[in-house]
Design goal:
Elements lengths: L2 H24 L17 E5 L14 E13 L7 E7 L3 E2 L14 E6 L3 E5 L17 E2 L4 E6 L6 E13 L8 E2 L2 E7 L2
Antiparallel strand pairs: 1-2, 2-9, 3-8, 3-11, 4-10, 5-7, 5-9, 6-9
InterPro entries: WxL_dom
Pfam families: WxL (PF13731)
Protein name: WxL domain-containing protein
Amino acid sequence: MSSLNRRFTRLSLSLILAAVAALGAALPAFADNGVSLTLNAGTRTASIGNLTLTALNYSHSGQSQTGTLTLTADDSTGSGAGWNVTVQSSDFSYTGSSANGSSIPASNFAITTANAPAKTAGQTIDATNGPKVPGAGATGTLDSAHKVIMANASYGLGTYTQALDVSLDVPAQSRAGDYSATLTVTISAAP
């Protein structure tokens, strides 16, 4: 190899090494960095909108009146624990002007049909895991609590509505006036 070629090779190699060293000095140092996030849990709620049954006329015979309650259940906890909702009624208190009025027992007020829920927001309804109407016990008199809707673990992460068809049996010769009851709606974790 000629001395010119050797000088050129040395010069090229020196330039390449200098360029690599310059690049290495210009490159930033990397460290292990990360990003973190906290997702806060929301709440689990259930409620039923007010219902006014159509008025009846005084009668010497027993009569009944029907209506539909609308239940709303929401699971915004993010826990995926699953949940269930129960409904129970108080007696219908007489609020009329007659001193001889009496209440209508909660055992005369019943859920006749617990309809399939509908999604308002969130997770899609799964036919097997819910939210869904429980296999048994969703209908009956409301003097005791009835589980009307439920979701298994990992399901029901959203907001859902459910129509509950109800019937009130009004005893014969019930005093004319107004009657009202209070519904207790409870949502609990776990199906």
